[in-house]
Amino acid sequence: ASCIQHRLVVRDASSLQILQLYTCLDQIQYIEWSSDSLFILCAMYKRGVVQVWSLEQPDWHCKIDEGSAGLVASCWSPDGRHILNTTEFHLRITVWSLCTKSVSYIKYPKACQQGMAFTKDGRYMAVVERRDCKDFISIFVCNNWQLLRHFDTETQDLFGIEWAPNGCVLAAWDTCLEYKVLLYSLDGRLLSSYRAYKWPLGVKSIAWSPSSQFLAIGSFDEKVRILNHVTWKKITELDHPATISSKKTIVYKEVEKSPTVDTERLTFPPTRALASSLFSTQSKYQISQVPVSLQYIKPVADRANPKVGVGMLAFSADNCFLATKNDNIPNAVWIWDIRKLKLAVVLEQLCTIQGFQWDPCQPRLAVCTGISRVYLWSPAGCVVVQVPGEADFQITSISWHSSGNSMLLLSKENFCVCYLEREEV
Questions:
Q1: How would you classify the pairing of strands 2-4 and 243-244?
Q2: Is 306 left (phi over 0), alpha (psi -120 to 50) or beta?
Q3: What's a GO cellular component annotated to this UniProt protein (predicted)?
């Protein structure tokens, strides 16, 4: 699904053929599929309205108007039959049921980066609350929205929460001014509290492994610390040095190459395809000989939100690899072998890393750098894919299909779908 101003376009994922076209009341600012892909919500925050459309019954529609309370966020519950709307100034979260048309309210939600989290099985929801200048966490049962547990946290300014994939442990971390990661059980018991150091800037990013065995914590000191699920103690510390000296680490460096054009094909004026190939630069990967010095940027100390520390973390679907990005070295992706707890690969790009995402079915990483190229890494090697097109297609984010056969490439104004051929076994 994609939106153009006030129109919602639903396409077939394999052929991109338009299946449905819906017209909303105002400009769409956010869209989200239900878990079973039968409904899609369109949020219009300026108007304070959410419209829901059905793919099975195109004539059916639903409109939710928050009125004077306003609207700043909207999302589906895991069952795909309830919509959670957050009102302006985070006064409350309103839970709307599509089946019974009933309404439930959750008061005092906190405005933070990740203040609401569902377990993977969809049974429970955790919400960060702020009351009387203190942080609390409430855990709700999603089938009836009854409060299961409510407890306070030992935090100064709770920044975010995230469930382990098995739904047994909830991780909560404090503001960057206070290095503190708290781990709670489903019944609200504090299992463990972790603090790596005291005074400098603290936690910047967090990622659970798919098996729930490891919790990776990216910090402002340019290190990743991995905790184990048995004792919740640190098992290793992963550094991001500006110089790679280990011979066991493979460094892939992106280099530009001039396009080769057959002189016999040259005509005047040149054809459109030939003109684009003449003026488009291509790139490829080369394996660099260690030691390798990476481009290191020293952050400006007197500015807010300094570009320093590990800001991106992601585990592969098979738990074998961890991809990281150190914001001090913005052009590099670090890939760690979790089985050996060693650095396996570094991808050194020509441009700043905008995002990366693992294939949901196999250890294959897709990387984008804000230009019209996609970079794919797997244990077999690296490849650069040039996205065809006349205009300069600047890829800012990537989203894999659940089957791993295709991925969505997004720019600010356009999108395209990249289909990957499966090898015949």
A1: unpaired
A2: beta
A3: microtubule organizing center
How far apart are the C-alpha atoms of 245 and 163, rounded to whole Å?
37
Q: Give burial (CB, 10 Å; 0-12/13-18/19+) of 67.
A: exposed
Same domain, 290 and 330: yes
Residue type, 340: K
281 strand-pairing partners: none
Q: Which token pair is 236?
A: 């290793």
Q: For 121-126, which contacts have Cβ atoms below 8 Å and span 24 or more sequence positions? A: 121/78, 121/167, 122/35, 122/77, 122/78, 122/79, 123/167, 124/148, 124/163, 124/167, 124/186, 125/77, 126/161, 126/163, 126/170
The encoded tokens of residue 223 equal 């290190």
Tell me the residue range of the domain where 370 lies.
249-260+269-298+307-424
Q: Are residues 254 and 400 in the same domain?
A: yes
Counting every residue, how long is the chain? 425
- How far out from the chain centre does Cα 361 lie? 17
What total number of domains does the chain contain?
3
How many other CB atoms are there within 10 angstroms of residue 218's CB atom? Answer: 25
Once rounded to an integer, what is the mean pLDDT over residues 263-283?
61
Alpha-carbon span 65 to 88, nearest angstrom: 13
CB 118 within 8 Å of CB 79: no
pLDDT tens digits for 173-208?
999 999 999 999 999 999 999 999 998 999 999 999
CA separation for the pair 417, 296 (Å, rounded): 33
Residues 354 and 290 in one domain: yes
Helix ranges (DSSP H) in 280-314 = none
- How many Cα atoms occupy the beta-carbon half-sphere of 35 within 13 Å? 12
Residue 136 and residue 90 in one domain: no
E strand spans, 164-309: 169-173, 181-185, 190-194, 203-208, 214-219, 223-228, 234-239, 243-244, 250-257, 282-288, 292-293
Mark whether 72 and 175 lie in a shared domain. Answer: no
pLDDT on residue 424:
47
As a whole number of angstroms, the distance between CA 179 and CA 207 comes to: 16
Q: Per mean pLDDT, which range of 101-110, 269-278, 389-398, 414-423 is the poorest?
A: 269-278
- 302: which residues sit within 8 A by CB, 6+ positions away? none
Q: Are residues 232 and 327 in the same domain?
A: no
29 by DSSP, 3-state: which? coil
Query: Facing residues of 39 across strands?
Result: 54
